[in-house]
Amino acid sequence: MSAPALAFVRPPVDGPCGAAFTTRTGGLSAGPYAALNLAGTVADAPDAVRANRELVCAGLAIDADRVRVGTQVHGTLVQPARDAPRPGGFLDPAYRWPEGDGLISDQPGAAIGVFGADCLPVLLWRRDRPLVERAREVAFDLVGDGSGLTAHPLLEAEVDDLIVDASTEAFTSAGIGKDDVDAYWFGTAQSGMSGITLARPLQLANKPVTRVENYCTTGSEALRGAVYAVASGAYDVAMAVGAEKVKDSGYQGLNAMNPPGDGTARTLTAAAMFSMVAPAYAQKYGVDEETMAEVLASIAVKNHANGAKNPRAQFRREITKEAARSSPRVAGSLGVFDCAGVADGAAAAIVVRAEDAPNYTAKPLYIKALSFAAGSGSGLIDPGYDYTHFPECEAAAADAYAQAGITDPRRQLAMAEVHDCFTPTELVLMEDLGFAPRGTAWKEVLAGTFALDGDLPVNPDGGLKSFGHPVGASGLRMFFECWLQMRREAPAERQIGTVDRGLAMTHNLGGYPGEMVSFVSVVGAELG
Q: Are the C-beta atoms of residues 490 and 484 closer than 8 Å to each other?
């Protein structure tokens, strides 16, 4: 059941903190809301703060004593496109919202930020859903700026909860228990330092648990370790689990701590690094600025359309090309809708020998190829690197195709899950992975080749852009989509029509243009 959409009304309380809101369905008091925060205070307006607190609590039918005041807000402030520039800090009491309302909408896994004009943010979330649903469903559809942004609160779910939920689903699917697994591989980028991060919530008794991390390919790396362990004969049953919990950490995005280097490392953000791909590609292949904007918007629209059909996705609303193209800029020409959101989540997979698979499921998914390539990082100092391709991805794909006997991926693959951290990333990957000749992928995008009903569906689950990107789990999440699609168990409105080709691909990358690691797998529904 979808939660009510929030609409905003003008504050009836005078003062810089006056705020009020209601719902299109008749009032928030009917909903099972568990907590509410007023973020920040205004020293010179204590009466307004108190009045606002009482007003909101009354609207939610919540005891005012349960409200915590002064809590820091996490996430990214996204104002309507018409409002510029954005403030340096949204807790600045001197800032006054323009006429109309703003909102925090990039809040997957934290809380919902609700703003009335001239007021401080109000955060709320719900805890009425079971964890398995709550961890994957959109709880609020925010309206007010017409952009169609949604949010995905997981504030009350700890990393332990996410691990237990994903693992329990996998155990149930295979008909086994945790003690039936011989060894575990656990992938997380920032949510734990050792195998104990997995062993503690699952209460594993002296089982080998290997924690792995390899940038955004961490989840795929966990699966790769589990697969090779079973293939070697060391174990009969292995399990790969990936999890990430970062949205209530107090930091925007990922809080990566890099060791000191020699001064040649990048100093730009991920969005800034990938923003250089689009103009470089356009210049090299003669694509004008207007057409390139249309291409990138088409990728965003496609992935949001797919994610809107996915009950586990983070952002479950379709967007228009106009909304994508007019969204607030993040870096270079990239707007909010060109960038995948960091998310909280977990995924798990159980691995056994192919001949044993029928003992666990009537419709196994078979590993056909696993390939990994780490670049030397030389692109940052190589004057010949032009930002129009990712050599590590191309190398990993070529190796995987050789392992699986694929000579024409465009026509032999039924689908592909690729690492669309930014829209130009997906564009370039269509060529690096062999789905289109160099310099032509933009035409294929506009032709709908990679749409859900296209010749080669790409990211039918919404991709990182719409499904979300819990770093430690993303690679495994891609396998889950292949599992659903190749078994013909995806929701009818999202089931691809190319399953008979029999093979699916997953692709993960980590790092930045010029310094990447890349993973590519091929899986199939048939043995041999």
A: yes
φ, ψ for residue 28 (rounded to 5)?
-75, -20
In this structure, the answer to whether residues 390 and 484 fall within a common structural domain is yes
Phi/psi region, residue 459 (left: phi>0; alpha: psi -120 to 50; beta: rest), is left
Whether residue 268 is predicted with pLDDT greater than 80 in this model: the reply is yes
Q: 235: which 2 tokens? A: 């174990």
User: Each residue of 291-344: pLDDT tens digit?
Assistant: 999 999 999 999 999 999 999 998 999 999 999 999 999 999 999 999 998 888
Phi, psi of 183 (to 5 degrees): -155, 150
Same domain, 408 and 329: yes
Asked, for residue 351, whether it belongs to a domain, the answer is no
Averaged confidence pLDDT in the chain: 76
492 and 391 part of one domain: yes
- The Cα 209–Cα 167 span in angstroms is 14
Distance CA 91, CA 72 (A): 9
Instruction: Indicate whether 259 belongs to any domain.
Output: no
Give the residue-averaged pLDDT of 482-505: 97
Q: Is 442 inside any structural domain?
A: yes
pTM score: 0.73
Do residues 142 and 35 both lie within one domain?
yes
Assign 200 a pLDDT band (cuts: 50, 70, 90). very high
Whether 339 is a known active-site residue: answer no
Is 281 in the same domain as 368?
yes
Domain assignment present for residue 255? The answer is no
Rg (the chain; Cα; Å): 23
- For the domain that residue 182 is a member of, what is the CATH number? 3.40.47.10
Active site annotation includes 119: no
Mean predicted confidence (pLDDT) in 379-401: 95
Catalytic residue among 74, 119, 152, 216: 216
Please enumerate in sequence order all residues whose Cβ is within 8 A of that of 172, keeping only pairs 6 or more positions apart, or say none. none
For residues 381 and 518, state if they share a domain. Answer: yes
Which residue among the candidates 152, 419, 469, 507 is catalytic per the annotation?
Answer: 469
Domain boundary among 129, 151, 173: 151
Give the integer Cα–Cα distance in Å for 21 and 56.
8
DSSP 8-state secondary structure symbol assigned to residue 276 = T
User: Tell me, what's the pLDDT at 253?
Assistant: 64
Split into its structural domains, the chain has a count of 3
**Structural domain of 131:** 6-151
In the prediction, which pLDDT does 269 show? 87
**103 and 170 Cβ atoms separated by less than 8 Å:** no
Report residue 318 as tokens.
């379709």
Q: Which of 48-52, 147-151, 209-213, 264-268 is the most confident on average?
A: 209-213
